[in-house]
From TrEMBL:
All copies of domain Reverse transcriptase, residue ranges: 1-82
Gene3D superfamilies: 1.10.340.70, 3.10.20.370, 3.30.70.270, Ribonuclease H-like superfamily/Ribonuclease H
Alphabetically ordered keywords of this record: Multifunctional enzyme
GO process terms (BP): DNA integration
GO-annotated molecular function: catalytic activity; nucleic acid binding
Lineage top rank: taxon: Eukaryota
Limits of the Integrase catalytic domain: 496-584
Classification via PROSITE patterns: INTEGRASE, RT_POL
Protein name as it appears in the record: Uncharacterized protein
PANTHER family: PROTEIN CBG26694, PROTEIN NYNRIN-LIKE
């Protein structure tokens, strides 16, 4: 693998995933050549280290002892300090923030904001604190874009934001790891300055912060006439749960603490259309709402009431994502490996095992132990297909496998099904099916059955594979909770009138042109009495329709209670009355 090429990091990462992916989030974390092995005890750590060393040796990889740190209670990893209690900022990098001079131009300010943003997950309300600095950068860039001389004016509010960021980063806060076996707590608060939320857990009798989130209100949300205190608090709840903390809370039980007492009675509250849509978005989550006075809800209250000049894109501050219990990287055996002309590179990649954690010898043993595959091997060895009598006494899986005998080949001691496009599918033993489904669906973004089947089919084969994949996706608990139900369409109903001139139905039709060139006919029908009038018109515009209705019906009879337009495909209506009750 030559270094310096743009695809070299991706190639190396695929190699590391093939080597260790079955141990990811179990005892190993890996980013390129940075490998972190963690354990709960010393004896377990020795076992995990032995496993990692054996894997590296098997793949022909070497490690440099001088770059290794063994048996440490805390280590530096990807610019962070990882401990048993949580994740902290690297003091060596934070020292650079302490000594950072006051920026003199936009370039220096952007450099400072970029450096601080790397650790923004550790600063509650980072975007609010840095709001004046971002506003200064935006104004300078806007003036530069308009070919004006950018005036970099450093004021008191900018210095305060600059110093606040320094102090927040130098305080070295600790964010704990999420334990998905324990319930979560979400504290929310909202004011007309912004929204704030804190995600936490009680671990070992101690309350631990998992993530911070905050943002300012957008333009329409600042309208105090439309957004009451309860509606604003409901907005904060919907934003925190469905947007910022969704990955933590979906499928988990949690309690929401709010200082708005009416929100605690959300199930019985009378809500408008917008609020009902927000509550509908929360239906996928399992939670309860509890009232907590503002003086006891200080963390979220402070995040929502810090003033800022300009709305910024906000970011959830949380512990390093690699410590969550969910794998988001597809295992190497399910990824396409790019080809290259480098013979050393090709040999290194093609020697990777088809299934991470198992070499060819282990896979061959599993195939031989599988009853269905063992019977298939028997028929392949004897070079005879089963007779009708034998098929009647074989299991359904064996019969289906024997139908594929013409496509099954033995390669390196393993049975593969070779498709028409020369794609090799490993005949998968029954004991590995669930592992493949977990890797292709649960750990691959919970995609639909078709995409999951495509991932499985690109590497594996077993009888009734389509049926099993579809059943797995349909029974996935997380997919069922997150999937929106089918939209129920309003049924078609007949128009029922109880008296004459209650409902007027109008429609256009086209006939042959008369002597004046008119071919459009407006048909007006009273639904109750079936009394009908037809008037020829020059076109089908809204203005013409309104004039005919007034002249031929409204002035001669009376205004109906309801008039319905059965709109034709050729009609062109844009005119409407100024008073629309449905929007009031």
């Amino acid at each position: 693998m030559p270094f310096g090429l743009c695809n070299a990091p991706g190639t190396f990462q695929r190699l590391m995933q093939a080597c260790l992916s079955d141990q990811f989030f179990q005892c190993v974390l890996c980013y390129l050549d940075d490998i972190l092995v963690y354990s709960k005890s010393f004896e377990e750590h020795l076992t995990n280290l032995s496993l990692v060393f054996d894997r590296l040796r098997k793949f022909g990889l070497k490690i440099k002892p001088s770059k290794c740190e063994l048996f440490k209670p805390e280590v530096k990893y990807l610019g962070h300090i990882v401990t048993r209690d949580g994740v902290m900022t690297d003091p060596g990098k934070v020292d650079a923030v302490k000594k950072w001079p006051t920026p003199k131009d936009v370039k220096e300010l952007r450099s400072y904001l970029g450096f601080c943003s790397f650790y923004r997950r550790f600063v509650p309300g980072f975007s609010k604190i840095a709001g004046p600095l971002h506003a200064l950068v935006a104004n300078c860039l806007k003036e530069r874009k308009n070919n004006q001389r950018a005036a970099f004016t450093w004021q008191t509010e900018h210095q305060q934001a600059f110093d606040t960021l320094k102090s927040k980063l130098c305080s070295r806060p600790i964010l704990a790891y999420a334990d998905f076996k324990l319930p979560f707590e979400v504290e929310i608060d909202a004011s007309f300055l912004g929204l704030g939320a804190v995600l936490s857990q009680v671990q070992n009798g101690k309350k631990c912060v998992i993530a911070y989130a905050s943002r300012t209100l957008r333009g329409p949300e600042r309208n105090m006439e439309k957004y009451s205190s309860m509606k604003l608090e409901l907005l904060g709840m919907k934003w925190a749960i469905t947007e910022k903390f969704r990955d933590y809370l979906l499928g988990s039980t949690f309690v929401i603490y709010t200082d708005n007492n009416p929100l605690a009675h959300l199930k019985s509250a009378k809500l408008d259309a917008v609020s009902q849509r927000w509550v509908g978005a929360l239906a996928a989550f399992e939670f309860s709402v509890a009232y907590k006075p503002g003086k006891s809800n200080q963390a979220a209250d402070a995040l929502s009431r810090r003033p800022v000049d300009k709305v910024q894109n906000n970011h959830v501050s949380s512990a390093n994502y690699v410590h969550t219990a969910r794998m988001t990287t597809l295992p190497a055996n399910l990824q396409r490996v790019p080809t290259t002309e480098n013979p050393v590179h090709v040999s290194a990649l093609t020697s990777l095992p088809m299934f991470p954690g198992y070499d060819n010898t282990q896979l061959a043993e599993l195939q031989q132990k599988d009853k269905s595959i063992a019977r298939l091997l028997h028929y392949i060895t004897t070079n005879q297909k089963p007779t009708p009598y034998e098929r009647a006494h074989e299991s359904e899986d064996v019969v289906l496998l024997c139908r594929q005998m013409n496509k099954i080949k033995t390669i390196n001691g393993l049975l593969y099904r070779v498709t028409e496009d020369k794609q090799k599918q490993l005949i998968l033993p029954r004991v590995l099916r669930n592992d493949v489904l977990v890797a292709c669906h649960d750990q691959a973004g919970h995609q639909g059955s078709n995409k999951t089947l495509g991932l499985v089919r690109s590497r594996c084969y077993w009888p009734k594979m389509t049926e099993h994949v579809t059943s797995w996706c349909d029974q996935c608990d997380r997919c069922v909770k997150a999937k929106m139900g089918p939209r129920i369409k309003e049924p078609l109903r007949s128009m029922i009138a109880t008296r004459p001139n209650e409902i007027l139905a109008i429609d256009f039709t086209i006939l042959e042109k008369d002597t004046t060139g008119r071919e459009n006919v407006l048909v007006m029908t009273d639904v109750f009495s079936k009394y009908t009038q037809a008037v020829a018109t020059r076109n089908q515009t809204a203005e013409t329709t309104a004039k005919v209705l007034v002249r031929e019906w409204f002035t001669k009879l009376e205004f109906p209670s309801v008039y319905t337009l059965i709109k034709a495909e050729t009609s062109n209506h844009h005119l409407f009355v100024p008073y629309v009750p449905c929007t009031k």
